[in-house]
Design a protein that fits this description.
The complex is a heterodimer of chains A (about 200) and B (about 100). By secondary structure, chain A is mainly alpha-helical. Chain A contains 7 helices and no strands. In chain A, helix 1 runs antiparallel to helix 2 and helix 2 runs antiparallel to helix 3. Chain B is about 80% helix and about 0% strand. The chains are: A mainly alpha (about 200), B mainly alpha (about 100).
């Protein structure tokens, strides 16, 4: 059990570093998939198979695919040659990383006297009643927490409408532009900005 | 059995990596991925507490966080597509129309 935890924890951290250190967002997306799957495996060690499955299906299956789709759609490769104007942030990040990490570990230290985990329920004792089974989660979701559940469905409806409105082509700026050099693109960005201000 | 603090420590490390990623990445899509990383770290905390307190509520919260993350990704990526269409860049330093 501990070996499994250490293995997947190391995998998750390495993949997370891969996400933030890659220059090409496509490689970042692959790192993100690695982290998500490792965390899903950690959910399994926490006896939460339903959440683990949902994590893989929704996160790795839908959200990351959406990311990759947008990366491919926008053809980000042309962006990489541009100079980094805020290099100092890179040096600011390391002390911030250490400070934040120290702070959180200080907080975690006080969790030392946390309650011991409940004895793992054997599937033979209560076939579908154990914590984390689909039946338990479903029962709670549609009785005690039915209001948040409905609120989430409204939220998703709003997200659908918002995404459709945002992605719709504005007829004023909707003319198809030929791909251009960065300098011309910058000039055009000024033009569009001026147009928006008018 | 694995102590609870191990999971919390891993979650803290993942969250911190996400914060640093938002700071050092200049590509808006990569910054978005770092936000997903942070949400995922919080999910790990929820499930760990749910297991150690013997309560399903944490797992339900994870479900809701997943739904919010999906909605956020859909709207955020639509905004990114809009931004790219208007400014032809994905660099956050150049999306400064609201800056004085």
């Amino acid at each position: 059990m501990q070996i499994l935890f250490l293995l997947f924890a190391a995998l998750a951290v390495v993949a997370a570093f891969n996400v933030i250190l890659q220059r090409n967002p496509l490689y970042s997306a692959i790192g993100l998939i690695g982290t998500l799957i490792s965390v899903a495996a950690l959910f399994l060690t926490l006896a939460a198979p339903f959440i683990a499955a949902v994590q893989i299906i929704v996160y790795a299956g839908a959200i990351v695919v959406l990311f990759v789709f947008v990366i491919m759609l926008l053809n980000v490769r042309a962006e990489e040659s541009r100079a980094d104007e805020q290099k100092y942030l890179r040096w600011l990040a390391a002390p911030l990383f250490l400070a934040l990490l120290a702070e959180v570990f200080l907080a975690v230290r006080y969790v030392g006297d946390a309650p011991p985990p409940l004895p793992a329920v054997r599937a033979a004792d209560a076939p579908r009643q154990w914590l984390g089974s689909v039946e338990t989660i479903g029962t709670d979701m549609f009785t005690t927490y039915v209001l948040p559940f409905e609120a989430v469905s409204v939220l998703i409806l709003m997200a659908i409408i918002g995404a459709m409105l945002l992605a719709k082509r504005d007829p004023q700026f909707g003319r198809r532009r030929a791909p251009a050099e960065p300098a011309a693109a910058a000039g055009r960005a000024e033009e569009v900005g001026a147009g928006a201000r008018r | 059995m694995i102590p609870l603090s191990w999971y919390l420590a891993l979650s803290a490390v993942l969250f911190t990596i996400g914060v640093v990623g938002v700071i050092i990445q200049r590509n808006v899509i990569a910054q978005f991925m770092c936000i997903e990383l942070m949400l995922n770290a919080v999910n790990l905390t929820f499930v760990a507490f749910s297991r150690y307190l013997g309560n399903t509520t944490g797992q339900l919260f994870v479900f809701i966080v997943l739904a919010v993350a999906a909605a956020e990704a859909a709207v955020g990526l639509a905004i990114i597509i809009c931004l790219f269409r208007n400014r032809e860049t994905l660099n956050v330093d150049e999306a400064d129309l609201l800056k004085l």
